[in-house]
Design goal:
Blueprint: H1 9-16, E1 20-24, H2 28-36, E2 42-46, E3 49-53, H3 57-66, E4 73-77, H4 81-88
Antiparallel strand pairs: 1-3, 1-4, 2-3
Helix pairs in contact: 1-4
């Protein structure tokens, strides 16, 4: 094996995962329009709301407040440790499947 990282688990999860914020608002079209004008920000439909990447929850909340957009949910999405591990090791191959030979049956009905 090889060491993937050394440090706190929270730092590993942050570094290996894609950060986004799930936003629920009755004014999703208005919010999506505001977000579309910002460089490096994406907003896609997800889970009955918008999944926003490129801004943190506070920045989205401030933008919504400044533009009189009502928010019902503003939830940062973080990966699990398993998801972060899979992202960090994507493309790595550690194990290979091998055919395990089966014992030959003996003449007396037992196994060798």
């Amino acid at each position: 094996g090889r060491m993937i990282t050394s440090g706190p688990v929270s730092q590993f999860i942050d570094a290996a995962s894609h950060k986004s914020v799930l936003v629920h608002t009755p004014q999703s079209d208005e919010l999506r329009g505001l977000l579309a004008g910002r460089e490096g920000v994406t907003a896609t439909a997800a889970d009955g709301g918008l999944e926003v990447s490129g801004l943190d929850a506070a920045e989205i909340g401030d933008l919504a407040f400044d533009n009189r957009i009502r928010l019902h949910r503003l939830a940062p999405q973080t990966a699990t440790l398993e998801e972060a591990f899979l992202a960090a090791t994507e493309g790595d191959e550690e194990f290979q499947a091998a055919v395990v030979p089966q014992p030959e049956p003996r003449a007396d009905g037992g196994q060798a």
